[in-house]
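hi! just following up on the protien thing from before. the input was this:
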Amino acid sequence: IGPESSGKSTIAKLLCHCEWVEKRCFTNHEEVEKMERDFLVNLLDYHRMDGYVDDNSYLQYVGTYVTITLERKNVRIEVNESRKEKYQYPKVSFIPSERNFAATIPNLNKYNESNDNIMYFLYDWDTARKYIKRVDLKGILNHDISYTYDNESKDDMVFDGDSPLKLRNASSGVQSVIPLYTTVEYQLEGIFNRIHPLTLEQKAMAESFMKLVEELKQTLDAMQSTDEASQGQAKETIEQLLKKMRYDPASEIVLGDTDAFAENISRKFFYACTNLFIEEPEQNIFPRSQERLLYWLLSKVLNGNRQHTAFVTTHSPFLLFALNNCLIGNLVNERMPAEEKERMKSRTAWADKSLVAVYELHDGELKSIQDYDGLLMDNYLNKAYKQISSEYMEMLAYYDN
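and the predicted 3d structure came back as:
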């Protein structure tokens, strides 16, 4: 959290970009030099940050697989091969505050003059709505609202009960929530249920990789029926191929463990989790709807067997109040009677303090606003409320009711 122009989105965009670069380096080691060379150009173009970096800018990102350092506009990427087994290959998704464009302008994804986070969100939403087809928002919004996408007519339709309405004619709150909800729902669940959850970029890399695998198989087959000298030459070929695929010469395929080899191929091209970056999820919706949206998002991220993450920027005190409910719910879980738990709207989103971090920005510096139990302490939003109330209380003394 933080005032406008304090740097919330800047931090989100930097982290999002570094995670994307790490993913590219993990998928193809030959990308490292290219990612170093193009790091700044890609960052400034994709996240529209031209003018944000100068000779005094410094950044260090320490990920699971790479460390990225930017200093005096020079970028260095160091790969930590010893940690590649711990790396979770993620779907990295940035959901910008401008997402309402998706709902208000029909077929906006056809306008591909730019190559930024707004356009890529539109591509993600287009994929999501075609896959999910229908969502029910009764649990979040204050109406019995559902949404469908008609693939033939290309219409986004909203139903309040039985009454149909085109999404572009719906309220601003509905226009804000539906692209967010549909995209998150797909990226936390649907993308893992599809038979081939690969992007075009991944498919190209996978095809290249499988050509190497086929060449490797042919070389292995040839080894079975050749003399000792030819086998030695074949082994050298195998080592070179394995290096291209970033596997040690004593790899699973050489040892005959084809299941482990297949698993490692899968780790390079199939998502293990999703890392979401969401700007201001509270846009245009009522406080109670903000509360329910937060509970829904947290329950989707935390529940299940995948290590999803969500990085959220907000100006909403109601999101913080709801988050505090989730944190204290976990603290009292063992002591609260079962029948009382069932009445708690936050029940499915109760979260251990070790899984949640909340910061506010002060002149570019981060400050935690959690106490030792993880609960939220006094912060910008509380202070703003108190200041407004204080002025009211002062004038109330002069009001003769």
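The radius of gyration is 25 Å.
The longest strand covers residues 273-279.
cheers
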